[in-house]
Amino acid sequence: MTLSDRLSQLPLPIICAPMFLVSTPKLVIECCKSGVVGSFPALNVRPQEKLDEWITDIKSALDEFKTSNPEQVVAPFAVNQVVHPSNSRLAADQAIIAKHQVPLVITSQGNPSDIVEQVHSWGGQVFHDVIKVSHAKKAISAGVDGLILVTAGAGGHGGTLNPFAFVREVRSFWDGPIILAGGINDGFGIKAAQSLGADMVYMGTRFIATQEAQVDQDYKNMLIKCAIEDIVFSDHFTGVHANYLIPSLERVGINVQDLISKGKVDLDLGNTNFWTDIWSAGHGVGGINDIPSIQELTNKLLADYKTAAML
Ligand SMILES: Cc1cc2nc3c(=O)[nH]c(=O)nc-3n(C[C@H](O)[C@H](O)[C@H](O)COP(=O)(O)O)c2cc1C
């Protein structure tokens, strides 16, 4: 069965987005078992040599599950590759991805042409992350199979474009798969994305507040307590704009009013580990009120999705 066929048979059109320091084999496996495409950034694997082990573990856990649950739809998994020239591990990680013939490779931050050629050689597909229409056009020229439109309010390095306008403009010149990302955390958002013309959605933040996510419990609790006004979009910490949970900045002594008014803070952040001490989330955080298992979450997403379809 082709990857496109497998994706079209999923109970819900969801990719659990790759998240730096958050995505683990456990999260990926449990997502795939629940019919959600699980993914992880190759850069989460340290040292690099362990990538082989991660992919082997994911494949064998899913094969075992399929054998004992032949009726269950098991989703494919994806690995995210940063294709920017600054990624010194790209070739080594890609060799492991090729060895395992990973079905779906998600590329970000650069030109995916070389990866596209390789992945197509084993019948896999490449979806590329974009935040601008010009990036989408370049990715299409590079031969990608799908476009992930990262819009305003997405967790991590969010975009700035409005999802309504972005999807409609890309749909005017691209017939292939569109995956919409940014603040989507329930079945109503999934249905709305499809109404706009997207084929699938990318959901990141919602999956951090699950039993299986191996992150600090305080991070999960903060997601429950926070709402959209607790998110700030700043390029001060990494040089690239990202959405952060304000209480996680305050925890390490950052004056958020200074950050908002001056765009920077004078505090010496020398000992602060970005992404481990300071936490990211998308605008959808206000809709997160619990920490379910991934199976409970997907059951709820499916129920809401069906309700939304009847509206
Ligand atoms: C904590 C965190 C880490 C992330 N790390 C990455 C990453 O390493 N690579 C990537 O392509 N996207 C990364 N993202 C962005 C997600 O892949 C996705 O675009 C985003 O989570 C979708 O928006 P949502 O969180 O509002 O659902 C990250 C997002 C979060 C919340």
From TrEMBL:
Pfam families: NMO (PF03060)
Single annotated GO MF: nitronate monooxygenase activity
Keyword Flavoprotein among UniProt keywords: yes
Record CDD domains: NPD_like
Keywords attached to this entry: Dioxygenase, Flavoprotein, FMN, Monooxygenase, Oxidoreductase
InterPro entries: Aldolase_TIM (IPR013785), NMO (IPR004136)
Key word Ubl conjugation present: no
PANTHER family: BLR1330 PROTEIN (PTHR42747:SF4), NITRONATE MONOOXYGENASE-RELATED (PTHR42747)
Family: Belongs to the nitronate monooxygenase family. NMO class I subfamily.
Protein name per UniProt: 2-nitropropane dioxygenase, NPD
Source organism of the structure: Bermanella marisrubri
